[in-house]
Design brief:
Blueprint: H1 4-21, E1 28-32, H2 39-48, E2 52-57, H3 60-67, E3 73-76, H4 82-89, E4 95-100, H5 105-110, E5 115-123, H6 136-141, E6 145-148, H7 154-165, E7 173-177, H8 181-189, E8 196-200
Parallel strand pairs: 1-2, 1-4, 2-3, 4-5, 5-6, 7-8
Helix pairs in contact: 1-2, 1-7
């Protein structure tokens, strides 16, 4: 039950966002916020769809979490130029898509810069007072797409659960008592949560 709860919220949300890309097996997908509650599921769903995942986050805990799903490309946004590293990982071409699930505004500002021509940015997270700016000439010339994706429908839920039931996706989570909610928010704000928190309301 605890493991299924995040699938029906975060899992469905990122699964639907990945479907919005409309890519093919082997396409590269950058996931800023890869080690968080949405991101660790996005990495697994993307991998199950045949995408090559380039994970962006920070810290050894999140690096290890992402690696545990068989994802080799991890970029620590606190170490060096992220755009350069994305292009290095994609043989200088840029990614086919970026699915932004991060809670920080910088990830949204940078997302378009990771793309190759005909690439897509899918916006999923909801950080306060955050904007994405697109240079019109470059966006038109490169046929870039900016897509907003919000949760999913019943069919998305069924498909997301089937992948989890088949063992293609698993939830990394910690159970916390409702009384510990202030502490959870503090750790979240500090970027110290790997995976998802499930609240026990009993």
């Amino acid at each position: 039950m605890h493991a299924a709860a995040p699938i029906l919220c975060a899992g469905v949300t990122v699964y639907k966002a990945l479907k919005e890309i409309g890519g093919v097996c082997g396409d590269s997908v950058v996931i800023p916020g890869a080690g968080g509650g949405l991101g660790h599921l996005a990495c697994q769903y993307a991998r199950s769809m045949g995408y090559r995942v380039i994970a962006i986050d920070s810290g050894d805990d999140k690096r290890k979490l992402v690696a545990s799903y068989g994802i080799k490309d991890f970029i620590d946004f606190k170490e060096g130029n992220v755009k350069e590293k994305v292009f290095e990982a994609t043989e200088g071409r840029g990614a086919h898509a970026s699915v932004v699930v991060a809670s920080g505004g910088d990830a949204y500002a940078d997302a378009l810069s990771f793309l190759r021509p005909h690439g897509a940015v899918v916006l999923v997270g909801l950080p306060k007072d955050t904007y994405i700016t697109a240079e019109v000439f470059g966006s038109v010339l490169n046929s870039h797409r900016i897509i907003g994706s919000y949760v999913g429908n019943r069919q998305d839920s069924i498909e997301a659960l089937k992948l989890a039931a088949a063992g293609d996706v698993s939830t990394t989570y910690t159970i916390e008592k409702l009384d510990n909610l202030p502490s959870v928010f503090e750790r979240m704000a500090a970027g110290k949560l790997a995976g998802r928190i499930v609240l026990d309301c009993e």
